[in-house]
Amino acid sequence: MSEIFSPDFLFRNAILGGLGVALLCSVVGVYLVLRRLVLIGVALPQASAAGVAAVFLATGHGQGEGHGTHGLALLGSLLTTFAALAGLVAAQRRARAPAEWGIGALFAIASAATILFIALNPKGDIEMSGLLRGELLAITPSDLHVLGAALLAAGIPFFLFRRDLLLCSFDPEFARTIDRNPVRYDALLYALIGGSIALGVMEAGPLVVFGFLVLPALAALHLAGGLGAAFAISAAIAASSFLGGFALAYRADLPAGPVCVGVAAVAWLAAALAARLRGRRRALATLLVLGAAGAASLPGCATRGGRAELPAPEPGRAIAVLPFDNQTGDPLRIPSDLFWKDVPRALGDPFAPPSPTVPDLLAQRAGIELARRGFEIVPPDRVRSAISHAPADPATAARLALQAGFGGPLLLGTLRRFTVTDTVLLVRLELSLVDPKTRQVLWTGEARQPVPIPAAQTLPEIVLDAGGPIFADAFDKH
Amino acid sequence: MDQPLLRVEGAAFGYAGRPVVQGASLEVRPREFAILVGSNGSGKTTLLRGLLGFLPPLAGRVERRPGLRIGYVPQRETLDPLYPLSAADVVLLGAWRDLPFWRFSGARERTRAREALDACRASGFARQRYAELSGGQRQRVLLARALATQPELLLLDEPTAGVDAETERGLLDLLHDLCHERGLAIWMVTHHVQAVGTRSDRIVSVSHGRVHLGRAA
């Protein structure tokens, strides 16, 4: 457990950051549910996401452009969240129409705007959507510092004014008679809600934020006998759901956010059933709900899907590693060391030699790694001269390979993700080994483990460093 | 003669600049039990809100004795049953009146809440969830909460609405005792003149936005 806090632990930032968001949302969420503002919890994260997309579109920024990217995104998130919140509160005070009309309209507009802003942004919509979706693994140490400061900034007034917040939420008129100003404490509560949502969306995405705003609070209100207990149970369910969900997602190779929300949803359903019990049975059921959510984090409750082992090397049958297909949505070109070499291509010279790409380097590295494992490899230059582009499908690959005289197995690769953050490389590379004569797929493998990387590396350095772990993940049986 | 707790002179109260009650002049005296009566929409709740200070006067003036402590008992339906609060928790809200935000709620506040519950004969269901109480029990809890603020003046908005006759009698007896034993001034809005009239010192009727002061029936 203590390894989570070690700076060397790969998932340290993701776990601590996600846990911070889950705790913040779960505590604020109790008031969101009690004040019957759940729909705001749906619409505001979407508005926040639209703000992130709008800032990126306006500034032309994209993922992987340093710390400024996150700062700008946070700014957009905060601006739109608070603007939307102010608009909703103003409309609610006028009370000319039901509050949910405005919230519904905000959700529709924000959802459409988010998609349009991403579509209009030329800087790789896949990476952008990753940022909007909330990439826990992309949380940097500086994000953790911001989150820690935000937790303190939210926690201190929340604790100090806990009585006044309750008074003004439960019975604002009575609060006024004992010299509390409900407008002031409503403003504090809305600031806490808006800030939590804006920050949470940046770090974990709208789904996780909404899920953790609502589900732990709903579960806690089923079980708790008092308000203090509701906050404590909500936070405990959020923490155990997040940790359990994260472990489950890691082991089952699934996106962490939806799995964490799924675990929280199971906790809520269990709490709804437990609420029918009374006395000690309910207390026992509460402990079981908390335990069950956390139990998902125990090793072995879910196992990673088994990987097939590479077939044994066959003497005389050299493997041809064909060019890898790039499905990341980003060209992933490697800039030349000598910048003028890139000038003809930048000017549109059709005869200028193409600059290498990350998939090219990965294909080269795949050949080296196969050779290390005892396989014979067709020289890469020979393959390149015969097949210069990634084949569309295994059948085409087989036909081209036979025409070129390669009788041995073909290694096909599709790169679906290659996202560089400050600390990790998020990669998804699908590989298959195809017999060109029978067109039979002999083996399939996949690399999707995040790879830790030192800061300030160039793309070739990253591929050089990460190549070993990537292909160990794909080729070696786990 | 005691100095009035609250004095209203030619005041108008209303919403969005439109007066609902006009030309109201009255005094709230210590230890008096007054009822505010009138038909629906006559403006009695508006007058009560004006006395509470929720509505600033559109005309005239309202003078409160400096440091006047007002306890307010709203209609019980205005409170959200979703909150996981016991009856004792609700009463404790009143005991927090003088507690600054940096201090923890302690034995003093709990004692004050317990005494208020005892005074309202509500200790028997103090640990039950507020949302699960009957109408009469809820009304006692809200009364205890107001008492826990240690008020000099209690303003109640239709505390006997929707409760059966026996519960109503019990509540009115309780209010009568509080007025005479604790020396509280009590003003309450009600439709039930017959039931309350004999216990009250004054009947204030509101009709078409005009306030008429009278004596007990």
What does this structure look like?
The complex is a heterodimer of chains A (478) and B (217). Chain A is of the alpha/beta class and 478 residues long. Helices cover 62% and strands 7% of the residues of chain A. Chain A folds into 2 domains: 12-295, Orthogonal Bundle (ABC transporter involved in vitamin B12 uptake, BtuC), CATH 1.10.3470; 320-475, Rossmann fold (3-Layer(aba) Sandwich), CATH 3.40.50. Chain A contains 17 helices and 6 strands. The longest helix of chain A is centred in the middle third of the chain and has 42 residues, at 182-223. Chain A is elongated. Residues 300-306 of chain A have low confidence and may be disordered. Chain B has 217 residues and is α/β, with parallel strands linked by helices. Chain B has helices at residues 44-52, 87-95, 107-119, 135-148, 165-182, 193-197; strands at 6-15, 18-28, 33-37, 59-64, 70-73, 153-157, 185-189, 202-207, 210-215. In chain B, a hairpin with a 2-residue loop joins strand 8 (202-207) and strand 9 (210-215). In chain B, helix 2 crosses helix 3 and helix 3 (107-119) crosses helix 4. Chains A and B meet through helix 7, helix 8 and helix 10 of A and strand 5 and helix 2 of B.
